[in-house]
## 1
Amino acid sequence: MTYQPLERIAASETVDEAATAAMLAAYDRDGGVVVEKMFPLATIEAMRDAVRAAAEGFAPGDATQGLGEDGKDFVGANTVRFSSLGRMSPAYFDMLDNPTFEAMADATLLPNCGSYWVNTGQAMLIGPGEKAQVLHRDANNWLNYVEPLWPNCPEVTISAMIALTEVTEELGATRVVPGSHKWEELKQYETDLPTVPAEMSPGDAFVYSGKVLHGGGANQTTDQWREAMHLSFVVGWLTPEEANAIDYTTDELREQSPRIQRLLGHRSYDPRPHAGGGLWLQHAKAIEDQFILD
């Protein structure tokens, strides 16, 4: 079986309702869409330079420590991964405030939660000769919730793989199985399925569902790195993969927008307009503006 290439839709400087509707339609049909020029080039260049500088402190395969053999295979022996990107460049906070990604996240996640927060913000640099990553679904981080309701479980996470430089199939562009987010049978891991690559230029983003099968591609070069980063959100009543709330202090985020504070775990969770109780509460008077329901 072969699939058509992923749909590509250009972003605009301000949120365009028609373009957003088209992006969401492609996302619903295929499980993902390439949004061209979602991030300003100046922001991407600043993030790219910061990631390159930080990468000098990480050896390929470092992120595999303590993960066991399956984890090592999943992360990659010649792949560099690291988080805490806001500590490396203020461009990261600009990316969190991106209006196009916000519109898509609002449309997919807010029907199931009062607010959402960052799941991961990672540099993902695939080195020469790295093999293809096993295909997987990001939503399987919360498999005990997803599996009993599959395939009709609500969307709990949305991700963007963002090109910091040109990303081609030869360099290891993310591979995706279009439509697999609607398969009747939940397959947590697969390897030998036909896929299509999400090739991108700097500033483009492959925005995809947590329910779709995907994985990093093989880097077929001998001397080039695939330079990209991953940014994902998860509904506010689930635990994120990364502990952003203890990665940044209240003082460090005081000048950031309430949205960024919430995305990084420095605001409490209000379920409204949905049913449920407040979560992640902190009632100390000195910091109540940061943590109590607002």
## 2
Amino acid sequence: MPLELVTIPCLADNYAYLIHDPETGETAVVDVPEPGPILAALNAHQWRLTDILITHHHDDHIQGVETLRTATGAMVLGAAADAHRLPRLDLALTEASSFSIGQEFAQVIDVPGHTLGHIAFYFPQSGLAFTADSLMAGGCGRLFEGTARQMHASLQKLAALPPETLICSGHEYTTSNLRFAATVDPDNPALQARITDTAAKRAKGQPTVPSTLATELATNPYLRAHLPALKAAVGLPKADDATVFAEIRARKDKF
């Protein structure tokens, strides 16, 4: 039985996610921008929080961890490489680590770029990938600590997951991400259709996450830097994929 997924809007434009195993009753949250909405969702579903999964050290992903730990007694899991700047970890993870939520085992994926210690969580049986500020809906995170080549390599790991995987990213940035994408991929009908769909969802106040990896592969320019049309659009028809990715990311920074 797949894990149940609940998407929780937090702060101005963050998301946290609950995942729940109905067989065992175990429930995890991915990132804690603020505790209130998460506690409210747990109460509404009458779920008991057992685990807190942290993707990276930025305050808008961890500032509610201690309050939530105190309120629930949940274990905290995060990257061993970032243990010095995360809340106290009960389990420090590396890419070789595996852990379970209920009956399903998760894989840890190192995805440096946005930060050096950023990790993603992949649940293959349920087809869920929690990517936070690495691969995002229609975009990717700003390069605060890592290099463009690191981020490109990180996104290639995620792009290799099954296309039906749900990409659970950390922010409601989709509208602006797609508006930029159209400047480098203007003749992409899938992108234009996604822009229309995103506008309709936001007009109703609906989240635009999660998205499928198939949708990202078809519309996200950071996953399409290998395509001749994208290379030509940024004036680098002969460049390697990572160089084209770097140019697209640099353009977004100025957009």
## 3
Amino acid sequence: MTNPTNLALRFIRPDVQAMHAYVVQHSAGMVKLDAMENPFTLPPELQAQLGARLGAVDINRYPGTRIDDLKHALARYVDLPAGLGLMLGNGSDELISLLSMACAVPNAKVLAPEPGFVMYGMSAQLQGLQYIGVPLTADFELDEVAMAEAIAQSEPAIVYIAYPNNPTANLWNADTIRRLITQVSAYGGWVVMDEAYQPFSSRSWLDEIRRDPNANAQVLLMRTLSKFGLAGIRLGYMVGPTALVHEVDKLRPPYNVSVLNAECALFALEHTEVFAQQAATIRAEREKLFNALQQLPGVTPYASEANMMVLRFTGDADAAHRAFEVLKAHKVLVKNVSKMHPLLANCLRLTVGTPDENAQLLAALTSALS
């Protein structure tokens, strides 16, 4: 007799059935330091203004020209260089999926350093592209020789470079990246610079594109408003050569950005000074947190250019897991990345929070290490 469950899944791809769904940790009542969110809300007066704006939106209509207004506002915000186009995504995740879809020709490949953002590989797999992960060095730097060899052998359609990287939070050597871009560009591949954490970084590849547009003619740059302070509205954007952006934009679902999300983003771009001050506070807190973590025995923090950092525990193989559980018992939620990749063995990833949240994190860590 046929198993009803097996029959119901008959047309679900086997690789999809073998996958694990993305799990969001329950955070009610916790100090939430697991998802690289901006911990600051809008000031009350701006909350009231935004509420009035959203209340006046015509939610009975599909998104229209307001989306174009948002694209123009973002182009002004980034000072979009001549010759580049801009498109919107429902978060950077959608943009990554659309890129995989656009490049899904026979035998196409996607390559990225690892550990890195899981969606690069997942989106490639779901679109039928081969994914190639190239391990970083032990100190989380690009292994240029290994990258160059893998690129030469496979000629990937897309090479992702997260700048700074998630979860390691570091910026890689610019000269190395320039050489890799030259190599990939020579056979017509694309390098995608993923700047999700740009508000907290000391450098942006957009400045490199402005400085030498010819050398970066095969480069796309992605950003998101999630780390800007709007993780809840799911809005990403990508800039690159107009002709290429036009082709990828053909795959974008109609009305992929809602009128409410667009109005939130436009409102935020009218108050960039508020979010810039929040980012400055986070950067200052990041340095304080890093210095404090350096004083704790039994852990090694890694310097960060994002709003997170990796912390490695010494001791046996379960030291990070035990610390994670102690932190949870103290109502502090971080990300246990120790099983994500061999290079992250015994590591936790911490989001930089408010001063009070960081103080609670340090107190809980001290307890975990005692």
## 4
Amino acid sequence: MRLVFAGTPETALPSLRTLIDSPRHEVVAVVTRPDAQSGRGRKVHPSPVAALAEEAGIEVLRPQKAGDPAFLDRLRELEPDCCPVVAYGALLPQSALDVPRHGWINLHFSILPAWRGAAPVQHAILHGDEITGATTFQIVKELDAGPVYGVVTEEVRADDTSGTLLERLSVSGAGLLAATLDGVEDGALEARPQPADGVTIAPKISVDDARIDWTKPAMHIDRLVRACAPNPGAWTEFRGQRVKVGPVRVVAGKRLAAGEISATKTTVLVGTATDAVELGEVQPQGKRLMGAGEWARGVRPEGDEVFA
């Protein structure tokens, strides 16, 4: 099939590479978000998907909106049979959805109808899901509600962050997307409506959402920190400045007051509503990432100082 691939971040790269290498399909163009500022110098860079496509000699389309007339005209000229989508990051109007004869097929990183929305992996970790996965489905106007082609499952490990879990899902999901497109081309795969029950929503986790509330149980704090790693990064305040917190370890049986800091030369424990947690790596505002012990040796928290 002739494909126009839509995607933006690194998460989409395994799928794009798989489809570029597929003997059955031809990626004639990619659609991605416009170049954006990134890095310390805030220089303008192409998206990871755009960079890979340009390296492969594939046309790159960067519409401000997917409903832009010039973009729609070019999409029609390309005559794609199907438009696979992985983390594109923008809404698709009906005028775009109507162009390819097999529609737009999305790879979404949850087992739909669970965790529809922008942050399915983060919410799976935050809510303590033991199993998650990836789903291919036909895009319709309603958010992540289209009929499903296929699913792969993945265990959520006790030490998973959103980053590590998404990395595994992006690889297994790439295989699922390729197999889905093969089945659609063969006419052997039929999309089935999603169940009406079990719908949950996964909105984007904001910086404010990522603030640690030390009056919550240790298990909740552990999940929040892992869900927010690497982005947006869980954080707390110390002496009026933000400190980002990396994954923690629950210390069973050790109790401290909520937010209380107990530091030695090598370890930093913080109190929660239940057991204390041991900090791993932290990043003070405006400084580099460092071990919690190194941080404590530098700031020397006093006995009445707490994380807020």
